[in-house]
């Protein structure tokens, strides 16, 4: 055969093969940004100006894979106004230029923060500090206000401490919490279109700190302060577990009318890296991406860098690292595949179900709620463990009682004085379900029984710390046979405890009795229907008591 005919035959064979062999999966190819854009989200990275200016591979991946960028350090106060009135924008401009060339949107980070702010700001008196803050915001935001690449700003960053109290930073100590509203107003004055965000860490799941953030955002918006976005940093670590109820948390903020976004995602591990840790890390990345995908108001996900070659983690947490989606030599890791496949809509190639979870054990059983914990499953099929479904064993069709991304759950909305037989199945990223765990049996308590108004109320302490706690949810259930158009719940606080905030109910306090009445939007309850509200309490340091004696009318 002449070589040209051989070539023709081979070409034809190639075309035939390309036609017959389906692409391994749509998600096996295409950069992250293509898939994210297809889902109406951004996928971003923090950029460091050093490698951006002198490493081709860094620039190439940053430009090809991401459609959003955040300056890791170049827009912070110490970079943009190192001494009073002396503005330097070389690093910030380099990032905005790169983004413009690569058709990427820029999130400005960050205007008002307690860290990386020069000493001259920290020493000012209140009047001078407020005007320095307003001037800084006006200059920095103003510089990019008409630049179409720069679409959003972290106006204030990390205003809470780890317990969800206001951080006693120099800002707070000098200006009180008023600096927060002032900062947002100054940013709005400098750019009437930019999306203005408040950003923090350890607020990804539902906990005391995220609840404090929720209450702050809600109250600022009620006062007309232009907060239109909440950033959830997402600095996670596999050794501390995946945060609880991330999707629900994003959704409760979205329900306040704000945009939400994951702003600084990374998932560190104790070094050295190994395949098991990589798989767990990939699951964390996938879960975060899936939570954002599931919430319409979630604009996207920014990863805090992309290569393990450049990450803040090793410097800050000795012995930990490997937190990103490319290794030090720019090879994609399982976490890259997880982000990729989640954005692309899951992989269809995994048909291996996760292992069967262990027998659930029940705790904190009340009249209408129960906690369950079980030993975790593992998944080897490639798509990773996505979570668990909890079912009630009931015969032909077993109803789904709840879903969890971790190996525990609090079931709510249960009937009082009723025996439940429940089991758990694990789910992977491709939707494969494991076998059924062994069944656990528990019986709900009689509780207060139907109150005078034909309703019950039970409260769960969701998180507590030495001098406070969050009661969430308080579940109000109409146990009568006719609809209710309003409800009143009372509960007794231990001596010395005081309410510091509440949501989804109007609270009044007399002595130690808290009376909670429905809001306009959650008073109507059909028979068997329920609603929830929550409140936060401070208590004397070291006191471990919690409220009791819920009644409903
Ligand atoms: O990644 C940033 C690192 O290079 C800086 O040295 C550090 C200084 O505090 O800030 C890091 O980024 C932080 C971000 O600006 C705000 N949230 C936490 C991030 C990690 O510390």
TrEMBL record:
CDD domains: FN3. Residues 1-28 form the signal peptide. The active site is at 264 (nucleophile). Residues 356-447 form the Fibronectin type-III domain. It comes from the Bacteria. Residues 448-553 form the CBM2 domain. The keyword Signal applies. Residues 343-366, 534-553 are annotated as: Disordered. Keywords: Carbohydrate metabolism, Glycosidase, Hydrolase, Polysaccharide degradation, Signal, Xylan degradation. Residues 345-361 have a biased composition (Low complexity). Its EC number is 3.2.1.8. Gene3D superfamilies: 2.60.40.290, Glycosidases, Immunoglobulins. Residues 36-342 form the GH10 domain. It holds the Pfam family CBM_2. The keyword Plastid does not apply. Belongs to the glycosyl hydrolase 10 (cellulase F) family. This is Beta-xylanase. It comes from Nonomuraea jiangxiensis.
């Amino acid at each position: 055969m002449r070589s040209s005919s051989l070539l023709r035959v081979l070409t034809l064979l190639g075309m035939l093969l390309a036609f017959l062999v389906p692409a391994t999966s749509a998600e096996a190819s295409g950069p992250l940004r293509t898939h994210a854009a297809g889902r109406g989200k951004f996928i971003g990275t923090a950029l460091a100006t050093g490698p951006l200016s002198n490493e081709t591979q860094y620039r190439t991946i940053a430009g090809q894979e991401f459609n959003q960028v955040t300056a890791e350090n170049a827009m912070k106060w110490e970079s943009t106004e190192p001494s009073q009135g002396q503005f330097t924008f070389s690093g910030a401009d380099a990032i905005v230029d790169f983004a413009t060339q690569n058709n990427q949107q820029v999130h400005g980070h960050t205007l008002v923060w307690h860290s990386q702010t020069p000493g001259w700001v920290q020493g000012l008196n209140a009047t001078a500090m407020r005007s320095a803050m307003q001037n800084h915001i006006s200059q920095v935001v103003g510089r990019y206000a008409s630049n179409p690449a720069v679409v959003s700003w972290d106006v204030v960053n990390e205003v809470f401490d780890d317990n969800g109290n206001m951080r006693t930073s120099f800002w707070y100590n000098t200006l009180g919490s008023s600096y927060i509203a002032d900062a947002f107003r100054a940013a709005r004055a400098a750019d009437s279109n930019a999306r203005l965000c408040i950003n923090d860490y350890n607020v990804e799941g539902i906990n005391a700190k995220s609840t404090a953030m929720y209450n702050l955002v809600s109250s600022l918006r009620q006062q007309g302060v232009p907060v239109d976005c909440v950033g959830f940093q997402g600095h996670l670590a596999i050794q501390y577990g995946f945060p609880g109820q991330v999707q629900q948390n994003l959704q409760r903020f979205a329900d306040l009318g704000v945009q939400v976004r994951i702003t600084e995602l990374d998932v560190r591990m104790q070094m050295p890296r190994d395949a098991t840790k990589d798989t767990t890390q990939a699951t964390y990345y996938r879960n975060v991406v899936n939570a954002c995908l599931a919430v319409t108001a979630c604009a996207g996900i920014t990863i805090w860098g992309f290569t393990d070659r450049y990450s803040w983690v090793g410097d800050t947490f000795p012995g930990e690292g490997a937190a990103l989606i490319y290794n030090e030599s720019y090879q994609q890791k399982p976490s890259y595949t997880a982000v990729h496949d989640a954005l692309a809509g899951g992989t269809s190639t995994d048909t291996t179900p996760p292992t069967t979870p262990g027998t659930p054990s029940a705790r904190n059983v009340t009249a209408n709620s129960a906690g369950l914990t079980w030993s975790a499953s593992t998944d080897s099929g490639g798509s990773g463990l996505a979570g668990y479904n909890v079912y009630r064993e009931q015969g032909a069709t077993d109803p789904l009682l709840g879903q969890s991304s971790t190996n525990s759950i609090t079931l709510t909305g249960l009937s009082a004085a009723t025996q439940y037989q429940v089991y758990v199945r694990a789910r992977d990223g491709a939707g494969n379900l494991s076998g059924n765990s062994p069944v656990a049996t528990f019986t709900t308590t009689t509780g207060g029984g139907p109150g005078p108004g034909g309703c019950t109320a039970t409260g769960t302490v969701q998180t507590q710390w030495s001098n406070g706690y969050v009661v969430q949810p308080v579940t109000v259930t109409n146990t009568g046979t006719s609809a209710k158009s309003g409800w009143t719940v009372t509960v007794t606080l231990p001596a010395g405890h005081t309410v510091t905030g509440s949501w989804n109910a109007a609270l009044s306090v007399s002595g130690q009795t808290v009376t909670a009445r429905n809001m306009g939007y959650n008073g109507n309850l059909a028979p068997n229907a329920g609603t929830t509200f929550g409140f936060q309490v401070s208590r004397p340091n070291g006191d471990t008591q919690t409220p009791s004696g819920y009644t409903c009318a």
